[in-house]
Amino acid sequence: MTRDEWWLASLGRMVIWARLRVLDAGTAEVFDSDGNTLPYDSEDTARAMLMDAEFVAFDGLDEDDARARGFSLDEIAPPEGQSDAGLRERMVQSLGTRA
Description:
This protein has helices at about 45-50, 65-70, 85-90, and strands at about 5-10, 15-20, 30, 35-40, 55, 90-95. The mean pLDDT is about 90. β3 (about 30) and β4 (about 35-40) form a beta hairpin. It has a domain at about 5-70. By secondary structure, the protein is α+β, with helices and mostly antiparallel strands.
């Protein structure tokens, strides 16, 4: 059974998403904001790559973590799409300006 996890990085008021997909064989792949699917030999390797790129797991964020990154959890949600091609255009989310 495959399992998806959403990861994010922030740059100002922009959120960049990445989807970590853990495959049945124990390998993993990351779908990035450029529309690339990057294969990894394990879930641990894929997670390490994401952390090296300053991504954090969405499920692990609390409101304080989100505010430290410049947004509220109420402002964001992982992107949705019918296919990776449709998802690709939603992988970068601009949050607008603060009042």
